[in-house]
Amino acid sequence: MGKLKVAVGKLNFEFPGIVASGIMDETGDSMVRMFKSGAGAVVTKSIGSKPRPGHSNPTFTEVECGYVNAMGLPNPGIDMFEKEIKTASSEGPVIGSIFGGDEKEFAYLASRMEEFGAVAVELNLSCPHAAGYGAEIGSDPEMIVSVVSEVKSSVDIPVWAKLTPNTSSIQALGRAAEKGGADAVVAINTLKAMVICPELRKPVLSNKFGGLSGPGIKPVGVRAVYDLYSSLNIPVIGVGGITCWRDAAEYIMAGASAYQMGSAIGITGPEVFNEINEGLVSFMKEHGYETVKEMVGVAHE
Ligand code: SIN
Fold first, then answer.
1. Which of 48, 208, 230, 258 is the most buried (most CB within 10 A)?
2. Ligand 1 atom at shortest distance from the alpha carbon of 71
3. What is the Cα–Cα distance from 288 to 286, expressed in whole angstroms?
4. Residue among 91, 92, 86, 147 at smallest CA distance from 122
5. Cβ atoms within 10 Å, residue 269
6. pLDDT (tens digit per residue) in 105-131
7. What's 162's domain CATH number?
8. Coil, strand, or helix at residue 138?
9. What backbone phi and psi angles, to 5 degrees, belong to 75?
């Protein structure tokens, strides 16, 4: 399994698979479970300054190609999260996902995450369904530059920017993150989506629309990573619809230095990390790759 060690900038991970923000990452104990299942790192649930209940139910529904959620960024608030990061960090590297309404709030949350022991922060610039947060900030390249540079000047740990695919140019958003000093970009968050119940004649989710994740969005994510890899000089982390080792290999070959998984944990269970690790090692042996790094971006050659 030594073949699977990866680096994202100055951070080293034992395995290339990282738990995506939003699933099995609300408590220290659930994050520990993910490390024990072969995750190389865990990104926490997105955390804000104050406790937030999120949208009212229904907030989550299954569709034929994945899930549509509009959780609304529910979280216990940064003050309550120290214990969870400390518990999880005893087992492996934790990346603190944060959301804020402006530069100052992001910078404050990032410095708290650093104080708690997070090895990096991931800026949620992409949640598609929370008014005043996420994609409402992260769709504007100037805002991205401003938020990322403010966070960079407030912490010493690496800063990752998670980008929205709900845009005409994810490359423009990536370039803005790089200009602001981001150490890596993460692509993609969910695609804006809606499900309607014909009998009830109304949208299923209380928020009406939400974000689509799961296998249906994989080709969109692969394309986004491919485009970002060709236009940026910072690492790209791929996420969106990975459920098996072939999907992970696609993202790596498109240019991802590491990948994240969320919906796959719901579909297969935490063991999906170990299953993909084993599949990647067999593929690498068969095709003569000594390291994951040798595979990164080969689809561009
Ligand atoms: C949520 O917790 O509301 C989802 C976060 C996201 O889509 O970024």
1. 258
2. 3
3. 6
4. 147
5. 12
6. 999 999 999 999 999 999 999 999 999
7. 3.20.20.70
8. helix
9. -170, 160
Q: How far apart are CA 110 and CA 98, in angstroms?
A: 7
Cis ω before 188 (30° cut-off from 0)? yes
Question: How many angstroms separate the CA atoms of 254 and 235, rounded?
Answer: 12
If 0-12 CB within 10 Å is exposed, 13-18 middle and 19+ buried, where does residue 10 land?
exposed
**Whole-prediction pTM:** 0.97
Q: Please tell me the distance from the alpha carbon of residue 176 to that of residue 69, in angstroms, as a whole number.
A: 27
Q: Which residues contact 140 (CB under 8 A, 6 or more apart)?
A: none
Q: 269 alpha carbon to ligand 1 midpoint, in Å?
A: 20
Contact in structure between 70 and 207 (CB atoms under 8 Å): yes
Total number of domains constituting the chain: 1
What domain range is 274 assigned to? 2-300
Q: Of 65, 127, 197, 244, which residue is the catalytic one?
A: 127
What is the per-residue pLDDT for 2?
85
Nearest CA to ligand 1 atom 8: 127
CA distance 207 to 180: 32
Helix, strand or coil for residue 203? strand
User: Residues enclosing ligand 1, CB less than 6 A?
Assistant: 22, 46, 71-73, 124, 126-127, 130, 134, 189-190, 211
SS3 182: coil
The H or E element that residue 171 is part of is: helix 170-180
Residue 258 to residue 239: CA distance in whole angstroms = 9
